[in-house]
Amino acid sequence: MLALIVAAGATATVLLRRNHALALAAQLDRRFAALCLVGAGMEVVGLRVGGLVGHALIVVGLGTLLVAGWALRRWPGGWLLLLGLMLNAAAMAVYGRMPMAADVAHAAGLIYPVGTALVGNKDIVAQGWLAEWLGDRFILELPIIHYTSVWSFGDMLLLSGIGRAAIGKVHHVERG
What we know:
Layout: H1 2-16, H2 18-26, H3 31-49, H4 51-69, H5 78-95, E1 98-101, H6 102-107, E2 123-126, H7 129-134, E3 138-142, E4 147-151, H8 153-167
Parallel strand pairs: 1-2
Antiparallel strand pairs: 3-4
Helix pairs in contact: 1-2, 1-8, 3-4, 4-5, 5-8
């Protein structure tokens, strides 16, 4: 869901504010796209593989995304985006997946014991203060289309950073 929102935000920015989007893109290093693809790919493979190897792939993939994301620090909202990514990466590094507290899972209509990896997504039902504070906890229900999504504080920061980048003033940075 988050990837869909990021893609929709980027597309809307390109369509509505083409020059703004081009100015933002001009600030990125050429390795940015490659690092993003490698990091996201490792995360996806890690989630499918599971176990210790999967956990390691997720951690390395998230680290790669953080390295790629460093280029966004000069964007309007870049620090919000980086902080959100860091919080999500910390939670996923500890649990091997994005934690969701059992009471949040229950409130979202999911009844699974602690330690259950949820099929079809990145979440695991977890317990502990890290799961409570950094895990997925904000429930968004769209009853008209029978859809429920659960978001973390890191996701909210990511979205705020993307929104800020989409509407904020671009500062041209000279490359040295």
